[in-house]
């Protein structure tokens, strides 16, 4: 066994010598000889199952491949960069003549650009340099028409063309060119641009509901029910038209609208005012004489009902009522007892509250 | 996009706003009409060619950019064969590729249906196959329909006849394989022989149809002319004549272009063309640009005739009056017609360039692509630099570069381009073009490399040699037809001291490159002059050890090597041997000189004898080479002095 092992070791050593002295062909011959059964006593005999000749293999000595230096070296300084990098592309160090560095190296400077994965990972905007964009703009100029002079400012645009239409186009690399989201249409317009009287406006607002933004005064209508954009666009305009004309129509049942249906506190028709007049009458006073006080009371009560929940009026109105009472007592000696106006206002308040759920 | 719709909305509301905004007039301009791809084309027009980049079909990476014609071809074709393999897999495993995710559906992405004896076929399927250009499938389905005794309408039969006549029952290379078509060369010449399938399906269909459909005559004549079955085509033509059948313009075009094949003498050919044209006029068939080209094609075949040029010019004038402008191939035929006479050719080419300058050509005839290479060949023949620049300018105008043809005609164009440039233009200008075009657009053939090397030699511009040598290495031209010999020869003439090192690098890398190959099939043989030049260059830059190696090779090859080394090299070698006092090597060299038969041998021997102390054995050897007398004469002279 030991002899076999030693012979095994011997062979490669012999080859090493032969390699440096003979050409490659000579080595082939020796190995071929060695693989023939029985030619070498020390060698393991190989079992030739297929029989026949051993297939001749031509092994070419591989030549070292000539690789051109990166083309950045040949680039002239005044070259047009947008020709070199015309579109979006992954970073390539041999095409970008910039000494870029990216990434972290704890032992020194950041790694350079060659073979740097960090540079390949991040999206680059080398194709959108300012000169390239300028060129694109110049090329697209022939498709553009001049902007109407009358619409030079944003205010003018909004003034003359108050209807704003918003739609989105989607462009992505997938087999489909369609995107269901592209069908959605949004139209926006300021409410005060529509011709509406008080009734129509009231009805309009009731119809549009939360599509009206009170802060900006803009109505927004979004349509996405139909499968196509065109249909949605037509539908949006139809909705606008329908709502507008609907708000102008006066249905017979609208006469039945009573005070509780109102969306604001109507002081002139309120129970509270009635009570107050009654009170002044009892005191044989003219309401006009106490105009200032009545106005203040009116303001606070209207505020109390209209802006219920927004501010804390609880401590506002009793003050006014008390002042009214004191005025009453000061103004005439034969007035009612101090509690009465309070009760009256209280009653008025309750009356109003009952009628105004 | 958003703006567009805003404007649309605006236009709708314009009327309503006019009512209460009378004081401002808002004038919204009309939208400029544009096609679906106009924006893309406009953006693409901002991108010009990048001279340092390879063609966009290759990967922009130093390891994957091809630098010679072989790799260019193999890289492009292997990319395409990958596509073919993908298509094959898709066809083999159809069931796996039935998902239709594309919206709208792309027909080319789904596997094509296959037909066998049992498949359900009808006329609609046949129509579709004809429209899509599947030759074998269409023929199979047609036979299937016949076997099943399903009737086919004459109109479908007619379109099948036209299809078969167009393709001659052969499947053409699909238009999808752009690279394959680009690198397809040498196929044009084979096509000039009669390849028409006699008694094939086309003729069967024709005999079935001819009584019903008159246009079947047009189809069969076109097909026969296209595949050079000309005599039969004319037979059918006369049959149609006798039956008073009106043929279409394409039929007349193809008959005119093949007029040469039925008549021998030039006047008769011209007569036939004229009768055909007159017939067209009688029958009110409007000719087109291809009629013009067919006439010119026939005339170009008889360019030995004196009248050919007048006929051609008259024809062009007449077609111009019909508002038919000549296409590029018409100009090509004009050059062909004038090719016999150099002065005519020169005036013709300059007239053509006057006509064509600044014009943006589009393809109007299939053969339009042959113009540029032909015109450049003519330029080079005339040795006219001005014409060359004008022609090159025309090539670069607009999209004219698309008409350069295929890789073959492109390299023909640039081959003549560089021949003429190196002949007539100063070297700096040549190198400007060289740097711009090589290797990404054009890789010079060995003959062009030699021409450039010659120009370098004439201008003594040795500083260009290292660059040229590295290009030669890249283009793998160091083994072919004298390129290596030439560059070594020029390098050995170098007189600039600063460039010596560069030259010796070239020489040594040439030596290593050739010696390093040792390929079985390499049939490169050193010529003695090349080896001599290497020795000369190496010795000039003082690399004695390397020179010794090369000298050994030279001695080993002996007189079996082609031609002989420069005597200057051997003389320098002997001197260097004397310097390093190595007489043995020097004697070997003298032995070699003697074997080759240089007269300077004795002079060398004397030089060695006089400057080095030789031991008796060496002296004996020297005398055995040159004879004792010579050396003795030398000694006597010394003594007498």
Spans where pLDDT lies below 50 across 5 or more residues of chain B: 1-21
Please trace the helix and strand order of chain A, writing H or E for each element.
Answer: HHHHHHEEHEEHHHHH
Question: Strand pairing plus helix content of chain B: what structural class?
Answer: mainly alpha
The total beta strand count of chain A reads 4
Task: Quote the distance from N terminus to C terminus of chain B.
Answer: 105 Å
How would a crystallographer describe the biggest sheet of chain A? 4 strands, antiparallel
**Which regions of chain A have little confidence, pLDDT < 50, spanning 5+ residues?**
1-40, 329-357
| Average pLDDT score of chain B | 87
What is the distance, rounded to the nearest whole angstrom, between the alpha carbons of the first and last residues of chain A? Answer: 111 Å
Based on secondary structure, the structural category of chain A is mainly alpha
Q: What is the global morphology of chain A? A: elongated
Number of helices of chain B: 32
**Amount of beta strand of chain A:** under 5%
- The residue fraction in helices of chain A comes out at 40-55%
Mean pLDDT of chain A: 76
Radius of gyration of chain B: 36 Å
Question: Brief overview, please?
Answer:
The complex is a heterodimer of chains A (357) and B (641). Chain A contains 12 helices and 4 strands; from the N terminus they run ααααααββαββααααα.
